[in-house]
Amino acid sequence: MVTYEDVEAALTNVIDPELGLDFVELGLIYAIEVNDGHVHVTFTLTTPACPIGPQVSEQIEEFCSELEGVKSVESSMVFSPPWTPDKMSEDAKFALGY
């Protein structure tokens, strides 16, 4: 059975092309729900004007669908609360000079 941790690990493959860091480290993944093989990921972007939203949704579906036990994958892009650099991991802050 797929777990939260499995999904989170898969999401480390979703990379922000401008920053070169993954969405988990950047704090752009707001929620992961796993229920009987059905996965729902809520994410945001660094700014609402960022054009990569559809690409991110596709990557979330691709990487999570590869996990054993996943029956379906859905994602939702939200902008509330807005992303801020304080949501990044300490490693990401260090890598980006924060």
UniProtKB/TrEMBL annotation:
Instruction: Pinpoint the MIP18 family-like domain residues.
Output: 5-74
User: What InterPro entries has UniProt attached to this entry?
Assistant: Fe-S_Maturation_MIP18 (IPR052339), FSCA_dom_sf (IPR034904), MIP18-like (IPR002744)
> What superkingdom heads the lineage?
Bacteria
Protein name per UniProt: Metal-sulfur cluster assembly factor
Source species, please?
Svornostia abyssi
